[in-house]
Each structure stands twice: as structure tokens, then as C-alpha cells.
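Show me a record, fold above all:
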Amino acid sequence: MNKRIWAEGYPLKVIVTFGTRPEALKLAPVVSELHHQAETFRTQVCVTAQHRHMLDQVLQLFSIKPDFDLDLMEPGQSLAGFASRALVGLHELFGQEKPDCVIVQGDTTSTFIASLAAFYAGAAVGHVEAGLRSFRKRAPFPEEINRRLTTHLADLHFAPTEGARNNLVEEGIDAQRIVVTGNTIVDSLQQIVCRLDSGMLQPPLRARFPELPSKLVLATVHRRENHGERLQAVCRALRDLNEALPDFHFFLPVHPHPKVHEPVSQALSGLPRMHLLPPLDYTSFVWLMQRSCMVVSDSGGVQEECCALRKPVLVMRDVTERSEAVESGFAKLVGCDKGHIVAAALDTLKDGARSSLNGKNPFGDGRAAERIVAALASHAGLLVRSVDL
């Protein structure tokens, strides 16, 4: 075995690995910052393409050209099928390229499998957005287990908040390997909002809606644990709100999964002021969020985005791993009970109700990527590949 010792002037070889749109959005500013420090880091990007089309939108938006594209997505893919293909592909890649460190983000299957493949290949793992916990094994599924397993494979943990840091410490993670950075979605979101406001970026959805209504509710629903009766209850709640709020328009990008697309289309198609849309590019989605009066969603990332944009969000989940969103007052947990959703929405949309949403964004100031890359440089001795396996 050949020992390899890191020293000043030796660039740390880093492979940033991701597969979905949320990962790409949150790692784009990290990739940019790493490239700006080429003397310290030799940076490559690998995509698994866990979600091909939605991932490609973000790559184009942030001008990221992957060095390695495994192109693993298959129609109707299962979690186990994708995970097995990703493990083989990433293990082979890391074995060939021999990175010192693999950077992953969040809680997807790509995140966990890339961390495992890096461990097998003898590379260190840096985990962006580490420490989020719902403390429920199957909520969200499979994300809660993905992030817990990734934690125990990682060597350096970039926690977005103090709460996330505390979760890691309570699990026995060495506090010296945890850095509180803020959430990188704020970095990306600020960039997109600036480009939209300046006219440098035009949302494609504007071609269909040149003028958006002033009273707009944006809704998203897609989580596996909300399929079935829970999704039916959400649809009934949206129908009731549509009837109770005749001045409001409802915009709902519909997830393509048949267990979402079919029941949503059956329940909500044809309603006045109910706009069922195909999955949106991120620019159009941010444009809608900016102009919404309220967001109703079961997404994790949307909770962070609404805090950054100072928008109220009703979270259609029983628990959230982003408790800071609730504590800040921007988010309310409403589950998937029709009555709870309707009552919370009507209360949120009351005249003057939004005036209280002026608190501090708990997810940071838009400089998370700077802190992450600075921490990578200062912890280089921990991350360098110490042995060729």
C-alpha cells in the first residue's frame, strides 16, 4: 500500500457527487467556490442522474458540466435497483479516480450510496446539510435513514443550523468535525432571485402566464408516505379551499409518478382557477414562490426556500426535520387532515396575518458555500486519502 501524505501546495482531489435536482441546487454554489480555489482543490463533478430531466435543468441553470455522468436512471426504477447500479458505478469510478474526498449533500439514495462507495474506495466523505432529523424511521421515507447512515460514513459534517449540529453531537459525532455553515439553498436562491429581479433570467412559465394573479396559492405534493388516502385528503382540502376562496388562483405542479398524477388529475382537473402544471423548471418555481401569498407543500426544501423568501408555508407532514422553519413562524405542520389544512390556510390568508412573518431566516445568509470550502481547506489533513486501496 502506498502512503500519500497531504502537504501545503498539494491540491486536494475532490469529487462532488449528486443525482437529483435538490442536490444539484444545493451543491452548485459549493462547486463554484471549489473551482475558484483551484490551487487548493482539484475539483470534479459526478452525476448519477437519479432524476435525469429535472437534474439537467439545474446543470444548465448554473452552467455545470459534469466530468462524469453515470446516467443511471431507468423508467419505473425501484430504490433497490437504482441503489445497486449506483454502488457499482460509483465504486468503479472512485477506484479509478482515487479522490481524497467525496462531497455529498442531503439525504437521497445517491447521497447514501456515494458515501458508501467513497468509504469502500478509501476516500473521505464531506456531508453538506448534515444532521437533519425527523426521528421517525419512515418519515420521510427513505430520506431519514439515508441521512442517518450517511452521517456515520462521513468524516466532515456541514450542519446548516445549530439544531442540526446538536443532533450530530447527541449521536456521538466528534464536535471538532462539525461545522455550522447555513444552508446552501439560500446561496442558490439569492442568486436566482437576483437574476430574475434584474431581468437577466426569464421564467419559461411566463410565456403561459404573462401576468400572474395577485392572489396566488402554490401547492406541491409528492412524498411516498403521502400516496393513497393521505393524497386524496389533500386533494379534497384543495377543492374546499378553491371553493372557499373565489378570489384566489391555485397553482399545482403535478409530480409525474402515477400514484400522484392520476389521483390529482381526477380530483382537481377542470376546477376554475385551479392550474395543474407539469413539473416546473426551478426558475419558474422560484418565480411562483416569490409571487405567492402562501405555499402548501410536503417538500423539505420548500420549507427552507419559503423561510428565505419570507413566505408562509403549510407543511403537509406529521413531522419535519427542519424544525427551525416551524420555530421561526414561517412554517406550520398541518399533516394531511383535510380539516387541518383548510383551517390553517384560511387563518394564514386572513388580512394582516402575514404581517408577523418578518423574522430572521434560520437557514443562513447566503454564504454557506464559502464556509464549507474554507472548512474543507482547514480540515485538509483529515480528508486526504491516506492509503491507496
Remarks:
- Confidence is low (pLDDT under 50) at residues 1-7.
- Residues 12-183+366-383 form a domain with the Rossmann fold fold (CATH 3.40.50.2000).
- The chain has 15 helices and 13 strands.
